[in-house]
């Protein structure tokens, strides 16, 4: 496994920072990782579910999702 692949996987510094951001504002960690649609989904679902006191479920899911994110390799990375 290459160093770049290890640096982007679960437990990497970037994912830890993203998880911390999602802990404070669900969806922010996904936004930092460049996953805009996923960030919007987490943000909206958390807001809606906090209205019925179940927002903590999405809040925790958002944090775990940001921490475990593993980007897919790009095609041009595989050629070299």
Account of the protein in words:
The chain has 80 residues and is mainly alpha-helical. It has one domain (13-69). 69% of the residues lie in helices and 0% in strands. Helix 2 packs antiparallel against helix 5 and helix 4 (36-50) packs antiparallel against helix 5. Residues 1-7 have low confidence and may be disordered.
Summary tags:
single chain, 80 residues, mainly alpha, elongated, disordered N terminus
Mean pLDDT across every amino acid position: 77
Q: Tell me the number of strands.
A: 0
Oligomer: single chain
The backbone outline, from C-alpha atoms, is elongated
Structural class: mainly alpha
Give the count of helical stretches. Answer: 6
| Gap from first CA to last CA | 14 Å
Output the helix-strand order.
HHHHHH
The helix content is: 55-70%
Low-confidence stretches: 1-7
Strand residue percentage: under 5%
What is the CA-based Rg, rounded?
14 Å
Transmembrane segments: 39-64
Keywords: Membrane, Transmembrane, Transmembrane helix
Topology:
Blueprint: H1 3-8, H2 13-24, H3 28-32, H4 36-50, H5 55-67, H6 75-78
Describe this structure in a few short sentences:
The protein has 80 residues and is mainly alpha-helical.
């Amino acid at each position: 496994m290459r160093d770049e692949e290890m640096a982007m996987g679960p437990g990497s510094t970037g994912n830890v920072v993203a998880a911390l951001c999602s802990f404070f504002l669900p969806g922010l960690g996904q936004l930092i990782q460049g996953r805009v649609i996923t960030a919007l989904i987490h943000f909206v679902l958390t807001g809606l579910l906090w209205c019925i006191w179940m927002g903590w479920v999405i809040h925790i899911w958002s944090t775990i999702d940001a921490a475990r994110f593993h980007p897919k390799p790009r095609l041009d990375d595989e050629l070299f």
